[in-house]
Design goal:
heterodimer, A: alpha/beta, 2 domains, eight-stranded mixed sheet, 25% helix, B: alpha+beta, Nuclear Transport Factor 2, Chain: A, five-stranded antiparallel sheet, 7 helices, globular
Amino acid sequence: MKRFNLELSVGLFMIAGIVCLGYLSIRLGKMEVFGEKGYEIKAIFSNSGGLKAGSSVVIAGVDVGRVKKIILDDYQALAVLSLPLDLKIQEDAIASIKTKGLIGEKYIGITPGGSEKTIEPGGRIRDTQPAVDLEQLLSSYVFGKL
Amino acid sequence: MASRYCWQTIVLLLSVVIAVPTLAGEPMEKIKQTTGKIIAIVTDPALKAPERAKERRHLIRKAVDERFDWGEMSRRTLSTHWAKRTDAERKEFINLFGELLERTYMGKVDDYSGEKVRFENEIIDGDYGIVKAKILTRKETEIPVIYRLKKKSGDWYVYDISIEGVSFINNYRTQFNSIIVKSSYQDLVKRLKAKVE
C-alpha cells in the first residue's frame, strides 16, 4: 500500500512537471491562440532583409500580429501577415521592414493611412518599403559607380 | 459581301489608330514630361537671372502642381487624423503642405547641376502605377527613385516618391502623427505656418 502511494505520488509529480513544462513552452513560444480567429493580408517587398515567419507585425510600437509565412513570388518577397479580426488596415497604409535596434531581428511596421477604405481579408498592402541594406547604401555613396 | 468586310477592317484599323495615343498616356510618359519640363526651366539660361528667380520658381511650382496630387498626399500624411478634420481645415492643410514642400525642396531644385534621370520601367495595376527611375549624380552614384501614381479623371498623379527605398509620405506621416499625438493638430498647423512664413 505504501509502495503504491509512493509510486502514485511520483507518477503524479511527473505528470504535473510535464504539464508545467508544456505550459511554459507554449507561453514562451508565443503560440497565438487567435490563429484561427485572425485574418490574412499580403505585402510584397523588394527586399525582406531576412524577415522570418513568426516575426512581429507592429503598429505604433504595439505587437499586433505575426508574419505567417514569407515566400518568393516573381523574385520579390511576399509576406503573409496574420492580424486580429478587429484590426482594420487602411488602403493607403504603408508597411515597412524595420529592425529591432540597429542590427537586431526584422519586423514589419505598419503606419496607418487616411483612407476610409480598408483592406479586405486576402487583400494586399500596396505601399511598402523594403529593408534598408546598410552595406549597399554605404557602398553606393562611398565608392560610387565604376 | 466584300464591302462589308472592307467596312469592318476600316473600323478595326481606325480603332487601333485611335487607341494608340491613349496607350501613350501611361505613368512613365507623364513623369517624363514633368521632369523634362522642370529640367528645361532650371537649365534655361534666360531664367537664370536673379531678377527672374520668382518667375522661375512659379513656373517650377506650376509644373509640379500638374503632376503631384497634394490632396491625396495630405490625406496620406495626416492618416487617421484626416477623418476628424473639417473641410476648411483640410483645405488649409493642403495649402500648407504644398508650401512646406516648396520651401523645403525648391532650393534643392535650384542646385540642379546636370543630373540625369534614367527611367527604367513601370508597373501598372489598375488605377495605380509605379515608375522606377535612377538619378545619376555628377559623382556617378545612382540613386534609385520610385514614383507611385494614381489615376484620377483619366490622368496620372504622383502620390508618393521613394528615394533609396524610403517613402516620402511615410516620413511626413510619422512626423505629423508624432506632433499631433504629443500636442495637437492645431500645434502642427502652427508649426507648419511658422516654417512657411
